[in-house]
Amino acid sequence: MAKGVSNNPTGKKGLTDKQRRFARELVYNDGSKTKRECAASAGYAANSASVKAAELTNPRKFPLVVRHIQELEKELQSKFDVTFARHVRKLAEIRDEAMKNGNLTAAVSAEVQRGRAAGLYVERKEIRTGTLDSLSEKEIKQKIDGLLADYKPLLESEEAVFEDV
User: Fold this and answer.
1) pTM score, two decimals?
2) What is the pLDDT along the chain (165 residues), one digit of tens a residue?
3) The CATH number of the domain where 33 resides is what?
4) Where in the sequence is the domain holding 102, given as residue range(s)?
5) Sign of the CA dihedral running 31, 35, 40, 46
6) How many structural domains is the chain composed of?
């Protein structure tokens, strides 16, 4: 088969209507329909839909159909791609709709999320650990005395055990 031919029964270059419908069915129903179901929905005979679907997605047999499927997938991906501008604009729409409906909690939440997306809020987590470096010598001695007092009964009982042995 010559490059660029889609096995169009009319002998013309390009895709047939059925091939275009199959590609759209396959891309827009991604995951909710099998290839066989997409072929049947596109108008191919139900008893040969599985074979036709396999052939239409084979780049050696139908390169133009496969290329068209890839183009539709790319177009769909760009349509639903998450970008900063799209994200912030959508949050603004949600905020405006919430305010219009009198739902101020949702409006505030959407506005805060917009601010986070724009980097206006810095989430800061601070983990504090007590270090001896920050204490004076007097404070360290007080800590040691306090610990010794807390654990004195335990320390004395261990000494008694070791003395008996």
Assistant:
1) 0.52
2) 444 445 655 556 789 999 999 999 999 998 899 999 999 999 999 999 999 999 999 999 999 999 999 999 999 888 877 778 888 888 888 889 888 998 888 888 888 888 888 787 777 777 767 677 777 889 889 988 988 888 877 777 666 555 655
3) 1.10.10
4) 84-117
5) negative
6) 3
